[in-house]
Amino acid sequence: MDQLFDVSLFNSTLRMVAPILLAALGGAICARAGVFNVALEGWMLTAAFAAIVGNHFFHNVWLAVLFAVACVTVLALMFAVLTVHLNANVIVVGLAFNFLATGLTAYGLFAVFGVKGSFYDRNMVGLPRWNIPLLKDIPFVGDVLSGHSPLVYLAFGLAFALQFYLFRTVWGFRLLAAGEHPAAAASVGLRVNRIRIGAILLSGMLCGLAGAQLSLGQVTLFTENMTAGRGFIALVASMLGQNNPLGVMLASLLFGLTDAFGIRLQGFSLPAQFTMMVPYVMTLAAMFFFKDRAYLRQSGRIGDR
Amino acid sequence: MRPAGSDPRGWRKRFLPEALRKRFRLKTSRPERLRLAGTLRGLLHPLAAVLLGLIAGAIAILAVGGSVVETYVEMWKGAFGSFYYVTTTLARATPIMLVGLGVALAFRAGFFNLGAEGQMLLGALCAAIAGLYLPGPPEWRTIAALVAGVAAGAAWSLLAGWLDLKFRLNLLITTLLLNYIAGLFCSYVVAFPLKDTSGSSGMAQTEMLEKAVWLPKLFPGMILHAGFVFAVVLTLLLFLFLRHTVKGYELRMLGSNPLFAVYGGVRRGALLAIAMLASGGFAGLAGAAEVLGTQYRYIDNALTSPGYAWSGIMAALLAGSHPLGTAAAAILLAALQTGGLGVERNTDVPLEIASVIQATLILFVSARFTLALIRRRKARAADGPVV
Questions:
Q1: A271 touches chain B (CB under 8 A)
Q2: pLDDT per residue over A142-196, tens digit each?
């Protein structure tokens, strides 16, 4: 057991959880505003690629992160126009963005770097590691919590900030109202469409950060399809957390832990396939406990309120 | 369905297909001329989408410094340049068509079944196992393998449907998760218990099927196999089913307006089971036909890396889930992919140019959905104020 649970397991959990958490927060904000966003996966992939491109051309990791966020924000704007203004089916558009991301990043990889499969440049500098003063000197806690990239800390900070925003501020309540009952919200003068577009843009920015952490956080490289379903896991994490930012944070931690745990179990000569299956099976199991009311309403099984 | 008689709001007249209108003795309206115009308008959008995709592709080609004309000529040659390439394209289209048809059926009924990949993989694996280990004469084993493939795909798909019905889990997410589980499971089976140890390749794959069990080729020396015939026949059958049967009508109605359909007495549960069984069966058949007709064994990643399942879903989306359109879109996507291979062989442009064109197509098509909705919104505004 000592070999299974040690400092580096929890440390790698925090690192792996950051992209999922950032994207899941984006999904949660969208869901709260009444938009079921399945494009998280594609946005994250685009951001991961854009971050590497930015880093390559600007030679500055912060500009790279900004570039990634900007690229995804443009995509999110397109998504918003299609779904909110033009009333296209959210799921179809979301899937289309996922296809677009796979195609464009694979092609872009060749167009920009002239390589296929993956790009790695040893001169490229990734996100810095922050050692938190004082905290890093506490024996166990310091090893787990210190020495992560700033985006990891930002992810957890944002979970608390969004919780406050949604449930303690007027703007948060307006967003909740727009998702809960659009007609009622519109009747008291809220601009539901604007609120939704705002939520989608915010979600895009969060996915941009998620992708940047993925490609610049631990390793500094991009591989084709490197998100590998993390966007969908994030979607489930936001459902599992009932779209409460703090709940989403706990759900994401759970997924990160199983992910890190799966890698660890491979050392015990269990077939890799089964350890890789763990997060998916757990997600499925978790869905039994948390029902998706929006889904039931939309498929006509419970009435509109 | 309630018996014929009153139709105070004219709903039946507006929404019922011809077969049922006759049953209710309503006048069949809509002159032929109008229908022809509708078909033409239906064709205009896909053509515009293809054109836009090609323009986007041209921009992408210019971005890597290639020649647009030369690239597209090579793409055409790679896809349809000779009889051999045509059959290769159709062989590639076979699994995409089969998956696409199944997905189109589910989408039509409003069920977002994204689990085609897992269903196809399990179908392929079970077909390989049945073909390898069942006793009996070879022809019988071919049929048994196809049936096993269909059954496996259908069962895996029904599992997601059952979870939705019984436990109200979101179908879109469960089917997606079941993909990963099925894929990893199949990969485990061919990497450990059923791994082919006779060869020296060390690849994760099953043993090879006997030659007598293979699906027959349509032309000597070409890779096109009997699976394509299944795909064509099933396309027509599905078209007739959706258009001319009561169950098909109920499926379409459930997809376009679930509340109205349930109000009209459509049983969602039964239709969900039918739609999931059928779409999973189609995906399973795609996998089985690929194993029996092209690969002759289950090879890990041989079905996932060409992205057959996702291409099938794309085909269904491109065609707005119309069966004939889905088949055509599947051939178009396959042609782009084989054409992309030709481009990569003969020019400096990478084959991913195909996925750029595909992605643009699909994005533009979602805008087509949009146009239909704008029209509907305008119509509603004409009826009077709505919330």
A1: yes
A2: 777 777 888 889 999 999 999 999 899 989 898 888 888 888 888 888 888 899 9
Residues 42-101, chain A: which have Cβ within 8 Å of B? 82, 86-89, 91-93, 95-97, 99-100
Query: Is residue A43 included in any domain, yes or no?
Result: yes
| Element counts in chain A: helices (H) and strands (E) | 13, 2
ipTM exceeding 0.90, yes/no: no
Taking CB atoms and an 8 Å limit, are B169 and A283 in contact across chains? Answer: no
Does the beta-carbon distance from A111 to B110 stay under 8 Å?
no
Non-local (6+) Cβ contacts of A102 within 8 A are: A42, A45, A224, A225, B355, B359
Q: Do A280 and B112 touch (CB under 8 A)?
A: no
Please give the full DSSP string across A147-216, using - where no structure is assigned. SB-HHHHHHHHHHHHHHHHHHHSHHHHHHHHHHH-HHHHHHTT--HHHHHHHHHHHHHHHHHHHHHHHHH
What's the total number of domains in chain A?
1
Q: Average pLDDT for residues B113-140, to the nearest whole number? A: 93
Domain that holds residue A39: 7-298
Q: Are A151 and A164 in contact (CB under 8 A)?
A: no
Threshold 0.90, pTM exceeds: no
Residue extents of the structural domains in chain B: 49-379
The tens digit of pLDDT for each residue in B201-248 reads 677 888 888 888 899 898 888 889 999 999 999 999 999 999 899 889
Write down the CATH number for the domain with range B49-379. Answer: 1.10.3470
